[in-house]
Amino acid sequence: MAKSVLLAVFLLCLAANTFSLSIQECRPGYRCRARASKGMLRSLVPQNADMWEEELCPPGTYSEGGATECTPCAKGTFAPAPGSAMCYDCPKAHMCPSTTEDAERCPQGTFNNATRQTCCRVCPPGTQARYIGMLECSPCPAGYACKQRERLACETQEEPLPFFGVQLNFDPSSLSAKWSNCYTESYSHSMNSTTLESILNRCNGRKLLLACRRVGTANLAVAAAGNREDVLFNCEKAINCTHAANGANWYYSSSYSWGFAKIGDSVARGSCDTESPNGSHRLCWHTSPGDGGYRCGTVQSLNTNSAWEKVIYHTA
Question: Where does the signal sequence lie (predicted)?
């Protein structure tokens, strides 16, 4: 009789340690599943809703604790090991085509200057990335020809650009579902190196669409789209610098100005573009500290204006 009592007590303790776990106690990196006791344990352990068992979250998923299911990692993040309490952002100079594997450094001939990217980009013609894990491509040295490598397999699945050239009165609802608005702010709001870093972390897609419009209107008054490296072509403070891509002349600086003009048109940045030819096809935002504005098509001097807004869309 005494042996039977001891055995019953042992089984009760075993059951309590194994199964009597409240859902709130489910640890990060685990999911908790309800489990009913069987056989002798059923008669010894009270049957209630607090009987759970923990299971490790599989790679590519995570749990912050107290969960019945693990959450899949978002695109551009990864969790390579079981039992993750979070997913890690894919770092710059790397690519993360899979959420279940570690980030891969960009191969030679490719680059990536943004976080949470699923693929590295091939260097444009006339440039090179001599080493793996490059943030940007460098110009091909004088006297040399730099052969462009083939596109990576992950890059061939990209969303195409929605249109060519500068568009007027563009309806953003015509964009595919893969495009999303990542930034909208009035022209009175200033851009600088600090705010730009935050904006570009949010707008981290491989393709960007810059636009402007009057506040309260749906259509974009002026819009142009391009690959990320084209839209962010660094002209520093060069007055006439532009970079032609997808039907627009682009320029960017984190401390001067950012915008575009119709392809073939010159710009006069001081710091924003004040040129007049095809003025309706021009957009310029100050990026120097303390300055808002500046132009949305032919509407200029918007430095403190809250009736017009800057808009950015992006896609992977």
Answer: 1-20
pLDDT of residue 168: 97
Triad 185, 298, 169: Cα angle to 5°: 65
How far, in Å, CA of 288 to CA of 290, rounded?
Answer: 6
Burial class (CB in 10 A: 0-12, 13-18, 19+), 156: exposed
- Tokens for 273, please give them: 């573009």
Q: Residue 13 above 70 pLDDT?
A: no
Residue boundaries of the structural domains of the chain? 18-71, 90-157, 167-315
Between 289 and 172, residue with greater pLDDT: 172
Angle at 104 between CA 102 and CA 105, to 5 degrees: 145
Rounded CA separation 33/219 (Å): 49
State which fold the 90-157 domain adopts: Tumor Necrosis Factor Receptor, subunit A; domain 2 (2.10.50)
CA distances from 56 to 23, 29, 37, 50, 282 (A): 14, 6, 21, 19, 54
> Model pTM?
0.59
Q: How far apart are CA 263 and CA 265, in angstroms?
A: 6
| Alpha carbon distances (Å) from 226 to 75, 91, 130, 156, 193 | 21, 22, 25, 16, 21
**Cα(202)–Cα(183) distance, integer angstroms:** 8
**Residue listed under structure tokens 């690959």:** 227
- Three-state DSSP string of 268-281: CECCCECCCCCHHH
Other Cβ atoms within 10 Å of 277 Cβ, number: 11
**Which tokens go with 11?**
């089984």
The tens digit of pLDDT for each residue in 30-52 reads 998 876 554 444 444 444 445 77
pLDDT tens digits, 52-94: 788 999 999 999 988 888 999 988 899 999 999 999 999 999 9
Q: What is the reported pLDDT for 248?
A: 96
Tell me the average pLDDT across 143-157: 82
